[in-house]
Amino acid sequence: MLTVNQLVEEFSFEVLAGHVGLDKEITEYSLKRPSAELAGYLKHLTPKRIQIYGRTELGLLQQYDISTRRAKISQVMISEVPCVIITRNLTLPLDFIELASERKIPLLTTHRSATQLFYLLIRYLINQLAPSTIANGVLVDIYGVGVLITGESGIGKSEAALELIKNGHLLVADDIVRVRRVDEERLLGTAPARIRHLLELRGLGILDVTTLFGAGSVRDEKVIQFIVHLEEWQPNKIYDRLGIDPSKTREILGISIPEITVPVRPGRNLATIIEVAVMQNRTQSAKSKTHLRLRDM
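^ thats the sequence. predicted structure below, dont judge the formating
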C-alpha cells in the first residue's frame, strides 16, 4: 500500500495543511490538473487522483471573487482526493488551507515545476502501483537480455549464476525476484532490498557480489525477457533436440515469456548452455521481427 506520507518522504514535500490525512492511500498513478473542473466542467472529475496546481490553475482562480473562488475549489477538492500538490512554492489563497484542513486532504508544496513533477511522480507511481508478484529463481542480465533461471531448490541456479557473473554477466536478484508489470508488454524484475546484490551458495554461505566482482557485476533491475528452467535429468524423458520451441512460454502477471527447459546432470556446463540458449533465442526473436516487418510492407 502506498500512502501520501510515503510520497512526502520520497520527494521531500512540505505539508501546509491536512496532516491528519497523510495516511490516505494512493491507488492511481495518473495525475490531475483540474483546470477544466475549476472552470465549471465537472463531468470528468477523477477524485481518486492526486491533484496538481500550477500557475495555470491558480491564475484561473484569481479571476473569481472570493465567494466564487471558494465554491470552485470546494467542488474540486472533495474528501476522496488523496492529496493536493502546489508547484513552484506558489502563494495560495487562504481557501485552500481551510478546505484542506476541513476535509483532511494533505496540502503539499514543492519547488519543482508542474512538468518536472509530472515526470517524476508518474514514473514513481507506476513502479509503486504496478501489479506485482514474487518469483523464486535467479535473475541475470546476459548479453543485455533479462534471464530468469528457475528450478527446484538445490538444482544449481545460484551456482550457474556465479559462473555467469564470472563470465562478465550481471546479477539482478538471487533466490527471490520481485516482478512488476510496468506496462502491457514488460515485466520488471528486482531484488528485495535486504538481499540486493547478494548470492547464496551452499557450502560458502552468502556472498556479496559487489565486493567480490565489483559494482559493474550487478544491476538493480531488469526487464524479464527469457526464462531458463532447470530440472533433474530424467532418463526416460524425451528432450527437445530441435532447438528452442518459440511456442513454449510461461505466463507471469498476464504476460507470456519464452521459456526453455534445460536438463541438469553431472558434467554439463550450465552457464555455457544458458549463454548459448540466450543467444539462440535472441537470434530467433530478431528473425521473427524481421519477418513481421517484411510481411507488413
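Residues 2-129 form a domain with the Udp-n-acetylmuramoylalanyl-d-glutamate--2,6- Diaminopimelate Ligase; Chain: A, domain 1 fold (CATH 3.40.1390.20).
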